[in-house]
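Help needed: design a sequence for this.
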């Protein structure tokens, strides 16, 4: 049976939710929450933008949750009706009843979510493991996606570097502020300083959730055949200083296999380049999405 108590204590739960809300407060646009029931549990979705605009879904990286989009939400929601879910079995405000254990589970959860939101066809953006989720849906149900944006989709096109796991391991063995900030700094080119809302939220989550809740999610390298079948226009962006992968190797493979691809490196971008190089990221995404804009 699924353990409904995902936190170590009720005090830990309150502490994490306060940290989540502190990061969400950085969204400098009007937004509202939705609670969407699927067979995997209740998915919390933060929504921004006019309902009359084209639908855009944002999928965050592993265990970081939807507030991470705070540097991107204003320009995106100016042109799109944006839905930013907390992946159902990861840290955030979603409440799972079962975990996403397989690629089919991941696709089914997203399909159910889109169906409940009455979204037949969307633009889809995914970062890190959210990029894997987006690519997984694109290879499973391509008719649901008008345009696809992959932001450093860890483990999807190339293999994750062992150095990434080495840097993150101390965080989950002994998640002190010092060890956590050191590991988090490795993923971003922006200085964190003494207090960074996103780093604090991620750290408090690692300290507050039970250890079994802290997986990186389902990730696997997509085959040549799967990438060659992608029919929708696709944008791939990777930070040129992303230490989780080999950026140029991944771009070369993607360019060789994905039919309708635009791909480039974001200068001075780490793995969290949508945050540390937000202006360049937002401009490039909106240029790619221009055909869908109203």
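Sure. Designed sequence:
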């Amino acid at each position: 049976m699924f353990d409904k108590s995902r936190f170590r204590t009720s005090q830990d739960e309150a502490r994490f939710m306060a940290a989540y809300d502190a990061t969400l407060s950085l969204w400098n646009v009007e937004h509202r929450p939705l609670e969407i029931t699927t067979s995997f549990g209740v998915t919390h979705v933060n929504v921004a933008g006019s309902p009359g605009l084209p639908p855009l879904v944002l999928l965050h990286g592993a265990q970081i949750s939807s507030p991470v989009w705070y540097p991107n939400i204003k320009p995106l929601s100016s042109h799109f009706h944006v839905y930013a879910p907390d992946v159902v079995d990861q840290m955030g405000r979603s409440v799972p009843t079962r975990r996403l254990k397989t690629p089919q589970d991941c696709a089914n959860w997203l399909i159910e979510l889109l169906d409940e939101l009455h979204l037949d066809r969307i633009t889809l953006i995914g970062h890190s493991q959210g990029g894997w989720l987006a690519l997984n849906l694109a290879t499973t149900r391509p008719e649901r996606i008008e345009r696809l944006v992959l932001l450093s989709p860890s483990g999807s096109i190339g293999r994750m570097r062992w150095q990434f796991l080495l840097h993150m391991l101390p965080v989950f063995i002994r998640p002190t502020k010092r060890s956590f900030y050191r590991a988090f700094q490795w993923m971003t080119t922006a200085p964190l300083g003494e207090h960074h809302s996103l780093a604090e939220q991620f750290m408090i989550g690692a300290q507050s959730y039970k250890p079994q809740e802290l997986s990186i999610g389902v990730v696997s390298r997509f085959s040549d055949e799967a990438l060659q079948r992608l029919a929708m226009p696709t944008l791939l962006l990777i930070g040129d200083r992303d230490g989780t992968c080999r950026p140029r190797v991944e771009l070369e493979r993607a360019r060789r296999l994905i039919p309708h691809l635009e791909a480039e490196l974001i200068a001075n971008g780490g793995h969290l380049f949508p945050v540390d190089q937000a202006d360049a990221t937002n401009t490039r995404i909106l240029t790619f999405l221009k055909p869908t804009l109203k």
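DSSP finds eleven helices and nine strands in the chain.
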